[in-house]
């Protein structure tokens, strides 16, 4: 799997529709300070479902929408479309190409689409879980992240290793199964009480 392209419109400083295409291998984005390089990594995080405004270097979610300049009015919507090459079947979808779209409006409404079909944020998270590319993944190493990992507590470092090893989904499934088991135990207790009362 590799990132084929990213298209931004109304996202942060990208007022006009802007498409960046990437080939396999290493790509480098260069530009002067403040030209929008980090905004591109923010866009990748955002389209993959990032919910933390702090991680996106803003103070509210609306900050991802182009906020206007002296000459240009603010826009009402931000949209990012990420296209991934999935010809190796790395993502569990039967498509050679997978597109993810996220839109958000100033009203606070928004939507996600996988290959143009509307979906939930949960579907995006599940699609990328344990691939190392989701919002909890380590495909984006921001400034200061290396120091943070080195000085992290042992448990936090363990969760990084677990995510990288791809076992988070099994941990989540175990948690879900334990919760269902507990619900079932409670239902059984209720049934036992009723049987006791009737006997
Ligand atoms: P550096 O090399 O200094 O790290 P950079 O190329 O990574 O810079 P970014 O941080 O991506 O630059 O871009 C910052 C620019 O994006 C600033 O000029 C800022 O005003 C602009 N910007 C951020 N959010 C918005 C927004 N919502 N609307 C318009 N412009 C925005």
TrEMBL record:
Coiled-coil residue spans: 167-194
Annotated ATP binding sites: 32-39
Compartments, as annotated in UniProt: Cytoplasm
Source superkingdom: Bacteria
Family statement drawn from the similarity comment of this UniProt entry: Belongs to the SMC family.
Subunit structure: Homodimer.
Function comment: Required for chromosome condensation and partitioning.
Domain text: Contains large globular domains required for ATP hydrolysis at each terminus and a third globular domain forming a flexible hinge near the middle of the molecule. These domains are separated by coiled-coil structures.
Name under which the protein is recorded: Chromosome partition protein Smc
Residues of the full protein shown: 1 to 199 of 1192
